Amino acid sequence: MENQTFYYDNKTVKLFAYATLFWGVIGMVVGLLLALQFIWPQLTFGIPYTTFGRIRPIHTNAVIFAFVGNGMFTGIYYSLQRLCKARMFSDILSKINFWGWQLIIVAAALTFACGFTTGKEYAELEWPIDILVAVIWIVFGWNMIGTIIKRRTRHIYVAIWFYLATFVTVAVLHVANSIEIPITFFKSYIVYAGVQDALVQWWYGHNAVAFFLTTPFLGLMYYYLPKAANRPIYSYRLSIVHFWALIFLYIWAGPHHLIYSALPNWTQSLGVVFSVMLIAPSWGGMVNGLLTLRGAWDKVREDPVLKFMVVAVTAYGMSTFEGPMMSTKTVNAISHFTDWTVGHAHIGALGWNGFMTFAVLYWLIPRIFQTSLYSRKLANTHFWIGTLGIIFYAVPLYWGAITQFLMWKEFTAEGFLKYPNFLETVTQLKPMYAARAVGGALYITGIVIGIYNLIITIRQGNFIAEEAASAPALEPISGKRVSGEGAHRWLERRPVQFTIAALIVILIGGIIEIVPLYLVKTNIPTIASVKPYTPLELQGRDIYVREGCYTCHSQQVRPFRSETERYGQYSKAGEYVYDHPFQWGSKRNGPDLSREGVVNGKQYKPNSWHYNHMLNPQKLNAQSIMPVYKWLISDDLDMSTTAKKIRVMQMLGVPYPDGFDKIANEDLMKQASLISADLKSQGIDCAPNKEIIALIAYLQRLGVDIHSAGLSAAAGTGNPVN
Amino acid sequence: MFNQVFQSVSGINNYGLISTIIFVVFFTIIVVYAFSIRKNELAEFSRMPFEDETKDSNEV
After folding, report:
1. What is the ipTM of this complex?
2. B-chain residues within 8 Å CB-CB of A301?
3. Is the pTM of this model over 0.90?
4. Closest in B37, B52, B56 to A469, CB measured
5. What value, to the nearest 5°, has the Cα angle with vertex A60 and ends A256 and A333?
6. Helix (H, G, I), strand (E, B), or coil: what is residue A471?
């Protein structure tokens, strides 16, 4: 066939690269502020927009979707065109993809700061932005598949398989986990409740790690590592097995985030088994990457790009061993809710995603600017400071986690908890939190050096927006299988069918795990004493969600003696049936709150304590790291939404009586007046229409419904273990 | 011992076993396919990242 000349679009690549650097700094500086708030809680500045609960989602979303997301798009837009020997399918779609993604990031940051959140970790965006994410993601997929269709190569290289799996799976996860009923423009209720919501959320959450942070970066590894090392991938055969085994197994592993929770045991077991099996394909990929450097390790000594890649791939291997290990019940019993999880997540984010992103940028930016890197020495400095930063970040958190679980679980010889006051454990951790902040600061310092190096590189270069290339057109071939062509070989040249095959593979795990939870009623035994929240409690719960209380407090007592002694009865599936969304949390920087309202219970505090605690936590205990929430005391409760909230809850199956929405505010004020009067009796003057009253009502409801005699037998979940 | 462990998990007969069988069958098919590909084809595929027209003169 005749050679055709065409032009690669480097402009979009450049824009995504700039956005990666910009959002990387923003996301990590916010992370550093969060780390410092553990040492100096005053750094919330006493205003709502900078409290831990509101800016933690800004940090996580900025790093995952803004820094890593833009880095992923940078790498994909560059490599996809070259692997397909074709320009991107549509310049307009590329522009929409870029600017739409940046709009989402800005909207996310603003709405989170204002407290507009769904309260689901890593899926906090409210419904209008969720819709925008879906649209922009489809634009990305459309542009990518269109490019593959018009390619000038027969075979679709394995890196693109990972890109396709990323597109289709993230689309499915995002849509399934974001089915919400709107109440206002920035408030909605998720359709799932309690345990079902938890399973869908962590099916999403874990697979966001799998298919947003892992598969696209494996695709990048399969392109950029051979390019940087100037040798083909070690085993293409292994990459095929790696791809299919990884995407099949990953999707099952979500329930390992819910071990020893109220989730049915069979689901937890499936999550554990598949998590452990996942080591095999993960390490297959790591080995394939590292062995690509066989005979070229001398280059690693010289080339900062390869240095970043080697540590990235090694961090991937470490994380994917540590993750399955943390999934086993024995390890999870001590690691869950501690800072071990945070350390584990950051080995992946800083090591695997961060270093791979910088490897790609250091390799790619000099090329599209037709120059060489300004300073290899500065790149090496970035590498070493960054590596030290990762170590300084993770090691203190591992140390802290061991301290946490040992203190949480220690009993005296007389059989009492040795550290019954949760705050004692927090106080012990402060030096580790300080060391973690130093690690984060080092990592950011490395990035600043890297950005300086890249800026000078860009300034000395000459940008090629339209890079000329030529290749023969692809000869037309039947869409059906040709003689002697196997099914998989056919798929390797059919992007749409390949995507559908990947979709089927990832759906198997989701369907087998999630669907029975809806169809088999015995999975969620109902508890007769559990009633819907009152209108005031419902409003209070929404304030709890708005302030991101779940980012520090769990609502899930595990069946361990150390937890039932500290908090009260362990959690049962049936007590969460009206929780839209569930609020189990994933770490405990503060105590569990699910038994907070049980009068005479282990955690009970009077209304006046809650009032004073929100007003000034450090006045009650100087060591507390809880932020102040004084605006809850001054701000009026928005009662205009009460009726709508009740109606939406009714739509979702919550058994409020017919017409209850019409008298909901009357009921709300009645209950609020009682709390206000109680506070008055304690010398606190607080009007019943203040937000703090609603939040107190919610906190005092927690655990009350199940605190009745004979409940364990009714729920049928056995006795707590050690 | 394994029998007792599996029996203690509610629903394992229905879900865990089916899931594992599905994976083993799927994995076997993929491995058989991967080993059926000719070496020259694998070499051709693995060299695809080097076939673009970008000049490699600007090494870092």
Report:
1. 0.81
2. none
3. yes
4. B52
5. 25
6. strand
